[in-house]
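This is your field. Have a critical look at both lines of this record:
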Amino acid sequence: MDFGLGSILVVVAVFVAIVVLASTVKIVPQGYNYTVENFGRYVRTLTPGLNIIMPFVERIGHKMNMMEQVLDVPTQEVITRDNASVAADGVAFYQILDASSAAYEVSNLQYAILNLVMTNLRSVMGSMDLDDLLSNRDTISERILRVVDQAAHGWGIKITRIEIKDINPPKNLVDSMARQMMAEREKRAEILEAEGARNAKILRAEGEKQSQILEAEGKREAAFREAEARERLAEAEAKATQLVSEAIAAGDVQAINYFVAQKYTEALAKLAGAPNQRVILMPLEASSLIGSIGGIAELAKASFGDAPAPPAPRSPAASVPRTGGVVYPKPEA
């Protein structure tokens, strides 16, 4: 009887020791913080690792997850500033920085954060036009994040990111936007085509203008070169005439013979190539031409007084060539 009572007492003592030890020693896992309450009042926070609390007096109040967490924002209807109805949803990322504030400053932390995000989502998106709403998701996320983070700062949490997942306008509005986009693209295509045609015409006109300018400059340069050539030829002719005149003045008969023979030959060439019709007999043998030049030279000698004047030479037209001649028909009366 005594042995049975002692065994029961030992078992009870061991059980009480285990309960006391379990109530005293607390192991906090990494990424969590535990709040400690003394008769229902918060006293301190347990960090990850082995911790000791007073049994039966202190107890664990809240086990707070200190890691970054994600909160899904459900789809909700939003009326934009231009009275377009859209459905939008998103996600919010937050992290607890102060376990005691997150545990005792707000009831149901996730529900509070969710409603705060949804309220500001409708407020921000409702203040924008539909076009701005669809093209400025980053701006919307930034504005919601700034407002929600400031409001949740007193709860000991940090809103790290808020992302808009989908913005879905009604189907009829989507179809209207598609038609508008198609019309805008066709308008741009027509504008680009018109601009291309205009630029092509401008370039062709500029090319023709440049071609005409270059052609005119070429003609002007050619005329200038031709005038310069005629000027040089006239200067050479004047120089030759001057030299011949000086030679004649000095009594050089050979110079006047060369000058007269040259002019006589040129006159015969021009006369033979004249377009009007006539009958002309011209000496073609070199002896006849030289004889005529010799007669002219004798006239020159007589003019200078070196010798008596010889008889006048026979006219080339009156002489009969021995080998032949060129006959042109006389013009009709």
The first strand starts at residue 25 and ends at 28. The CA atoms of residues 276 and 288 lie 25 Å apart. The beta strands are 25-28, 32-38, 41-46, 49-52, 58-65, 69-79, 85-96, 157-168.
